[in-house]
Amino acid sequence: MKDNQQILGTEPIGKLLIKYSVPAIIGMIVNGLYNVVDRIFIGNIPGVGPLAITGLGVTMPIMTIIMAFGMLIGIGTTTNISIKLGQGKKEEAEKLIGNAITLALIVGLLISVFGLIFENQILNMFGASEGSLPYAKAYINIILLGSVFNLLGFVFNNAIRGDGNPKLSATIMVVGCLTNIVLDALFIMVLKMGIQGAAIATITSQFITSIWGLSYYLRGKSNLKFRKTSLKLDKSLVASIFAIGSAPFAMQIAASCVQIICNNSLKTYGGDLAIGAMATINSVIMMVGMPIVGISQGAQPIIGFNYGAKKYDRAHKALKICATAATIGLSIGWLLVQLVPGPIVSMFNSDAELVSISVDGIRKYLSMMPLIGVSMIGSNYFQAIGKAKHAMVLSLLRQVILLVPMMLILPRILGLNGVWFAQPIADLISFVVTAVLLIKEVKSDKIETNDKVESEIISLDV
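and the corresponding structure tokens:
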């Protein structure tokens, strides 16, 4: 039977992208649903009101920070596995899995301890008010306790996909999501456990996905074998994980910083309901953006393997297909947001004032959505080929270098509209810069390929 990794360098790129990206897309949508489903259920609890959504909005930076560490370890591990396999270093690829598990356990415990000790200070800094703080605490207390399962689930989801089994990766995530939805309904609607019920449902489903992922390797059915000795941290492997995973980590940390700045600006210029509106908008962004992350993650093993094997034409083709698919998908999302925003935001809460603010905000905040695809795919492309610095710069450009100053300056001039328009301006500039760097990179690879061909021809002539 043909080795699962070797097909990355031989099968048609389109076929490989369907095989790897579709399960990854499903996995990322499911990952996003963990948060979105909670918000829908909580936003519709009878008698709770819109402040519950605001409370969840205040916790979003914490959720994003947890996801950042998941990406740091998970994506860093998977990309390194693909590169090692492309270089024929299977033993090192296997050691990466054990190191990733150890890192997830350590980081998860640190997040839980630190978060619970400094909870009040953190939530107040993130934009909580006297009215929204009780809702924020009720939810995040439980989420913090389950941080380890969150990280392990993310690590295993990525590792299993990099191991050549994307279908199982997607299946585990889908089962986890369905479990979350069922438990949300049970705990919130039947047992009347409120926000705490939503949080318990989330960490329970994450526990199930992490245990399932672990069992895949313990049963010995994986292509890459797990050994207990690989749990001991190897400095060089940890460094390689952090080097590659630093780009998505930086992007998510930056997103968390923007959320903090944004929450405080919203609180100043629009009040608690404006924070609730942004929580709704971010839920929509998550559902539209997660498939793009899935496309890029599914393409990473393909791009990483072929780049490592110096098959640049195949890596470039994967880049082109991914960028096109992302742009088309985001354009469809943009049309829906512009044409029918009301029904979309009403899923999260039917309060008339909250819906009105959300509709106005989402149209402005996502006005440049079709351009985001190239920026996201471009950053992940550089990450997949091992150019972590390029990937980090592009990630920080959109989320920090451009966005943060605009979030701080524009609201002082335009009020609430300044918050809404900061993101699309950053999206436009980031798109241009990313496109230029990608074109330059592709040309450089083509020159290297042509030089190699000419060298081989000269050798044959001699």
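(Above: one complete record from the training split.) The two ends are 40 Å apart (CA to CA).
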